[in-house]
């Protein structure tokens, strides 16, 4: 009987050892599994983000192509689409999501190309367009918003505001009044769009807009300059 108990005790001890060994292996396996998961996340997430970006860019291009085709058809019927405003109205009317052709809410600029009799238009997205051209368009759109604001301020006899909210490309940012030509360049660390303006007698005398790729500067004297215009 005593020997039996001894044997049973040994068996129990062996089982315990096995259990300990197993839990050690299980822990290592778990750590390895987590490491592999982390690696997969590190590798997959950026490519997933890139995949979404590419998909949005393609979606934007396709929507623009469709809108342009609709404009061309309308143009052929001889109906008047003589200004960009007409074209814009027509697109919002004809396309179910006319106001946001772009999946990421890029502002769509409609530019008349060719002569006045030619009613063909170019549509450029403020997010997915050519980097220089979109900087030019976003900059001049920002400037027009500042000028509009200055007009309303002038009518109300108010002071030139220190900040003006600019809305474009599905979001907004603040343009700041400045006292000096700051000569901002692209490549700012946070890569967000920025704008600064100087005002004299209610008119913009200096304006600068920078985004992650280019900059666009405007002075009343020289018009538009900056690497977006080179
Ligand atoms: Zn777009």
Give a verbal description of the structure.
With 230 residues, the protein is of the alpha+beta class. The protein has 2 domains: 63-125, no CATH class; 131-229, no CATH class. It has 3 helices and 8 strands. β7 (215-219) and β8 (223-225) form a beta hairpin. The structure holds zinc ion. Zinc ion is lined by residues 60, 102, 104, 106, 125, 127-128.
Question: What's the gist of this structure?
Answer:
With 230 residues, this protein is an alpha+beta fold.
Multimeric state of these chains? single chain
Rounded radius of gyration (Å): 31 Å
Q: What general form does the structure show? A: elongated
Bound molecule kinds, no repeats: zinc ion
Compressed to H and E, one letter per element, the order equals HHEEHEEEEEE
Strand content: 15-25%
Kindly state the percentage of residues in helix. Answer: 40-55%
Strand arrangement within the widest β-sheet reads 3-4-5-6-7-8
The N- and C-terminal alpha carbons lie at a distance of 99 Å
How confident overall, as mean pLDDT? Answer: 84
Main sheet record: 6 strands, mixed
Topology diagram in text:
Blueprint lengths: L1 H75 L7 H11 L13 E6 L6 E6 L5 H25 L7 E6 L2 E7 L16 E7 L2 E8 L4 E5 L3 E3 L5
Parallel strand pairs: 4-5
Antiparallel strand pairs: 1-2, 3-4, 5-6, 6-7, 7-8
Bound molecules: zinc ion.
The site of zinc ion has 7 residues, from loops.
Highlighted features:
single chain; 230 residues; alpha+beta; 6-stranded mixed β-sheet; two-stranded antiparallel sheet; elongated; binds zinc ion
């Amino acid at each position: 009987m005593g020997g039996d108990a001894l044997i049973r005790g040994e068996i129990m001890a062996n089982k315990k050892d096995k259990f300990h060994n197993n839990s050690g292996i299980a822990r290592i396996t778990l750590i390895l599994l987590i490491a592999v998961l982390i690696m997969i996340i590190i590798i997959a997430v950026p490519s997933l983000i890139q995949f979404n970006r590419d998909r949005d860019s393609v979606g934007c291009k396709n929507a623009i192509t469709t809108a342009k085709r609709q404009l061309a058809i309308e143009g052929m019927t001889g109906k008047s689409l003589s200004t960009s405003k007409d074209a814009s109205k027509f697109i919002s009317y004809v396309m179910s999501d006319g106001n946001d052709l772009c999946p990421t809410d890029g502002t769509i600029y409609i530019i008349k190309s060719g002569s006045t009799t030619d009613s063909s238009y170019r549509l450029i997205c403020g997010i997915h367009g050519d980097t220089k051209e979109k900087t030019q368009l976003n900059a001049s759109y920002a400037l027009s918003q500042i000028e509009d604001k200055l007009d309303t301020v002038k009518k109300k006899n108010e002071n030139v505001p220190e900040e003006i909210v600019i809305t474009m490309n599905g979001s907004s940012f603040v343009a700041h009044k400045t006292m000096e030509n700051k000569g901002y360049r692209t490549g700012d660390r946070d890569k967000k769009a920025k704008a600064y303006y100087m005002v004299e007698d209610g008119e913009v005398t200096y304006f600068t807009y920078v985004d992650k790729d280019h900059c666009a500067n405007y002075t009343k004297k020289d018009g538009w300059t900056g690497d977006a215009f080179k």
